[in-house]
Design goal:
The structure is a homodimer of 245-residue chains.
Chain A lengths: L35 H8 L2 E3 L8 E3 L7 E7 L2 E6 L5 E7 L4 E2 L12 E4 L4 E6 H10 L1 H21 L5 H18 L6 E3 L4 H8 L3 H13 L3 E4 L2 E4 L2 H8 L5
Helix pairs in contact in A: 2-3, 4-7, 5-6
Chain A binds a DNA duplex (30 and 30 nucleotides) through helix 6.
DNA sequence: CGGCAAATTGACTCCACTCAAAGGAGGTGG
DNA sequence: CCACCTCCTTTGAGTGGAGTCAATTTGCCG
C-alpha cells in the first residue's frame, strides 16, 4: 500500500478508447448481449485505464461515485476499514466482473478497491451507462442481471458455514470463475494473501493455513504458497456444498 | 406454514389497480421520485394483492421469476433451505421495501418469501417495470439505487461481528426502518420469531434470548416476547457500531 | 383446562481465535 | 553476492464465545 499514498485523484486519466468487439472478455462483460452495432456504440463510453500496479487503488472510500469499473485483466479486492482500524475484505474481482455497484445509492464509494496483481480496468461513467441502457434494452437487462447475481452471491456468502466449508467454497468459486475465463480450473494462482482470504471469509489467517494444510494432507488439493492445484474436485465440491436447494 | 401447502400458483390474482399517489408509502417506494403524471403512468403496471395471512408464501424457491413485489403492509421474511434441510433466513422486509431482486439473473426465485404478519404487497411485472424504466429515467435510477442499497447492506451484514453486535445492529436497523415509515423507533414489534432472528444473524436461538436478556438487564432495552422498547438508544448504537469509516 | 410450540435458562462442549514462536520468500543496500 | 530486514505463512498450545443438549417456563389457542 505504501507506494501510492500520495493522492486521491480521479481515475481513468487517459481516456483510451477500447474495442469491446476485440476484447477477449466479450461474452463475460457488460456488452455481452449487444450486437455488433450496439457494441460499437457502447465502446464510445468505455475508457481503458493504463496498467495498474499491485497495491494501487482505483477507488477509495469517500470518493465521489461517478464510474463503475470492469476488470480487464488482473485481480482486485474491495475492502472497508472498520472502527477498530481493521480491514474487512468484501470481495475479489476477476476479469469481466464489475466493480462499484455498492456505491450507486450514496453516490459515494464506501469501499476501497485495490489491485492485487498488475491489472487494468475499463472505466464506465455510470450516467453514460444508464443513459445508454435506456436505448439498449439488452444492456439494461445485463445491468440488472449482474447486480442481481451480485445480490445472490452475497446472500449465499452470508450462510453460516464452517471454516472448511467456506474455504472449499472460495476455491470452487475461483475455480469456476477461472474456467469461464478460459484459464485452468484445476490449477491457478491465489493473487490474494492468506490474510485477505481470512478477512473475506471471516476467519483467522491461521485458520486458512491450517485448513489448506488439512485439505492437502487429505489429497484434495496441492498448495504451495500462492499456487493451488485442485486434485479431487468432487471432494472439494462435496465439502463446499451446503447448497440451497 | 401448514395452512397453504396446497399449491404453488402464480400470485397477485386479483389485479386490483392501485393509486400510488394515495399510498402512504409514496416517498419510500419505487415511484418516490416520479412526478404526478409519471406516477399515474406507473400505477398502470402495479397490481395490489389481497391480504396475505401470516405463514402464506408469495414466492417459492423454484418459481419462475416474473414479478418483483413491493411490501405494502406487514412484514415478510425470505429464506432458503440448505442441504441439511435447515432454514436460512436471508432477510426481513418492511413496507416500501422491494422483494425479488435476487431472482432476476436466473429468472427463477431462489428464495422463499413468507408473510410474518397479515400483510399485503404490490406486484410489479419486472418486464413492465424495466420497460417503463427506459421511458422514465427517475424510475431507472431508483431501481439501481435500491439494488445498490441492497448490495451495500448485504456487504455490511457480512462483517465478522459478535453476537451482541449483530443483535444490536438488527435492533438499530429495525428501529430506523420503522422510524422512516412513521412508526415509533423506540418501541416496536418483532414480527419474526427468535428462531428467525437467529437464523438471519447466524446465531443460535438460545443466543438471541440470552443477549436480549443481557441487554435488558443492562437497561438498554425492555423486551417482552415480541414487544421491544429501546431505552438507551445511544448505548445500543454504541454496541452496534463497528461501522465502516 | 389441556396441549403444544416458542422462549428461556443452565451445564457442558467444541471450533475457531488468540498468543507465541519459528520458518520461508523477497527486496534492499552495502 | 551476501547479509539483513520485513512481511507472509505455518505450526503449536491454550482460551473463550457461541453452540449443543437438556430441562423448564411461558404464552397461545382450541
Amino acid at each position: 500500500m505504501g507506494s501510492e499514498n500520495q493522492k486521491k485523484k480521479p481515475y481513468f486519466p487517459e481516456r483510451v478508447q477500447v474495442a469491446c468487439s476485440q476484447c477477449t472478455l466479450g461474452n463475460l462483460c457488460l456488452p455481452r448481449s449487444l450486437d455488433a452495432l450496439e457494441t460499437e456504440q457502447f465502446e464510445h463510453i468505455v475508457n481503458k485505464s493504463r496498467p495498474i500496479q499491485p497495491g494501487e487503488h482505483i477507488f477509495r472510500a469517500g470518493d465521489k461515485f461517478q464510474s463503475i469499473a470492469a476488470v480487464r485483466a488482473g485481480c482486485f479486492k474491495s475492502y472497508v476499514i472498520d472502527k477498530n482500524g481493521e480491514e474487512q475484505v468484501l470481495g475479489f474481482y476477476l476479469p469481466g466482473e464489475i466493480i462499484g455497484f455498492d456505491a450507486i445509492h450514496e453516490k459515494t464509494h464506501r469501499a476501497n478497491v485495490v489491485a492485487l496483481d498488475t491489472s487494468s480496468v475499463c472505466g464506465l461513467s455510470f450516467d453514460s451507462v444508464t443513459e445508454m441502457a435506456r436505448q439498449l434494452p439488452q444492456l439494461q437487462d445485463e445491468l440488472f442481471r449482474v447486480m442481481s447475481l451480485h445480490i445472490s452471491e452475497l446472500e449465499a456468502s452470508a450462510a453460516d458455514l464452517s471454516a472448511e466449508e467456506r474455504i472449499a467454497r472460495l476455491l470452487c468459486s475461483l475455480s469456476g470463475r477461472f474456467a469461464s475465463r478460459g484459464y485452468s480450473s484445476k490449477e491457478f494462482n491465489l493473487s490474494m494473501s492468506r490474510r485477505d482470504i481470512a478477512s473475506n471469509l471471516r476467519l483467522a489467517t491461521e485458520t486458512i493455513s491450517r485448513v489448506l494444510a488439512r485439505f492437502q494432507s487429505a489429497g484434495i488439493i496441492r498448495v504451495n504458497r500462492k499456487k493451488v492445484a485442485i486434485l479431487e474436485e468432487d471432494k472439494l465440491k462435496e465439502l463446499a456444498r451446503r447448497d440451497t436447494c
